[in-house]
Amino acid sequence: MDIAKNTICIWYDNDAEGAARFYTETFPDSSIIALNHAPSDYPSGKEGDVLTVQFTVLGVACLGLNGGPAFKHSEAFSFQIATEDQEETDRYWNAIVNHGGQESECGWCKDKWGISWQITPRILTEAYTGSDRAVAKRVFEAMMTMKKIDIAVVKAAIAG
């Protein structure tokens, strides 16, 4: 088994496998690599339970840990997914929100496990980080009014 040099470890109450399966069904270049079972009882489970799930999300190595209810997720950690167009933005946003997740602001949403996702069209990031500060301000202010990012509104803000 090849273990990545740097892996994002995500603590789940008890459904790391369900989360990994959802992520790998939702995002391309994603897969479950291994389910690892506990060799003995541990504070949140029993011998033989799925303890960790090795998986990738868009090629990024992740490890889901079934650690129990001790720790909760926050927006301090999020996956940021750069999208190319409205169709891709809608597809990922809707998959997360419509699968037990919830909308937030400015392109952020949470999945049903409490993991935060930023579904961010490239045109948005390029506009608000670009050298034209007047465009950046208009685009940023437009973004602040949105939940899911509307690329048509972003393009209108760019045009002025």
Task: Average the pLDDT over all residues and give the rounded result.
Answer: 96
Reported for the largest beta sheet, the result is: 4 strands, mixed
CATH topology of the largest domain: 2,3-Dihydroxybiphenyl 1,2-Dioxygenase, domain 1
At CATH's second level, what is the architecture of the largest domain?
Roll
Helix-strand sequence: EHEEEEHEEEHHH
Strand content: 25-35%
Number of helices: 5
Q: State the name of the first-level CATH class of the largest domain.
A: Alpha Beta
Structure class: alpha/beta
Distance between the termini: 53 Å
Q: Helical percent range?
A: 25-40%
Largest sheet, spatial ordering of strands: 1-4-3-2
* Radius of gyration from CA coordinates: 18 Å
- What is the count of structural domains? 2
Number of strand elements:
8
* Overall form: elongated
- The low-pLDDT segments are none
Relevant CATH superfamily of the largest domain: 2,3-Dihydroxybiphenyl 1,2-Dioxygenase, domain 1
Structural account:
The termini are far apart. This protein has two domains: 8-66, Roll (2,3-Dihydroxybiphenyl 1,2-Dioxygenase, domain 1), CATH 3.10.180.10; 78-159, Roll (2,3-Dihydroxybiphenyl 1,2-Dioxygenase, domain 1), CATH 3.10.180. With 160 residues, the chain is an alpha/beta fold. Helices cover 31% and strands 28% of the residues. It has five helices and eight strands, in the order βαββββαβββααα. The longest helix has 12 residues, at 86-97.
The gist of it:
This protein has 160 residues and is of the alpha/beta class.
